[in-house]
Amino acid sequence: MKEPLDIDYINRAVQGDREAYNYIVKKYRDSIILFLNNIISSKEDCEDICQETFQKCFNNIQTYNPKYAFSTWLYTIANNTALDFLRKRRVTTTPLDEIANEKPTNDRDYSTLSPEESLINNQAIESIVMAIQNLPEHYKKVAELRFINELALEEIAQKLDLPLNTVKTRVSRARKILNEIWKR
Length: 184
Description:
The protein is about 70% helix and about 0% strand. It has about 180 residues and is mainly alpha-helical. It folds into two domains: about 1-90, RNA polymerase sigma factor, region 2, helix turn helix motif (Rna Polymerase Sigma Factor, Chain: A); about 115-184, Arc Repressor Mutant, subunit A (Orthogonal Bundle), CATH 1.10.10.10. The longest helix has 20 residues, at about 20-35. It is globular, with a radius of gyration of 19 Å. The two termini are about 30 Å apart. About 20% of the residues are buried.
């Protein structure tokens, strides 16, 4: 039996279908937790951030653009939620005399990452790249194209001149191996 495409479940989720929500959570939860473990050290915080990620996902699922990989959109939500968590947790203190002498400026760009956030982002990407390099040879290229270059399965099949079902199988198996690597 052929597994329904994510877009079918996404469309059903937009309509409020609980079964579709459950499918999406079941499919992506473990991967999101493993991804968050590269950013957040506390397992409990990772669980909370994962739950918040899915809440944000479902609250905004109607804004998802199917032109892009759903996983990319979901990982972006998870990454931003984790960075928000780190920002909130970071406590900075400034002596009162410095605040009094400080000139107010509104030219800070809040969309840029702090050095700490950039480092965390780079470490997460680096760990994914390193894990992919440890995959068996026939999974490396599909994993790189899917998880790093974020190509659709159809694009990967075309680029590698492989049947779509072969690409789906290799991506699925690569994902399982990567999950095992990250669990260690």
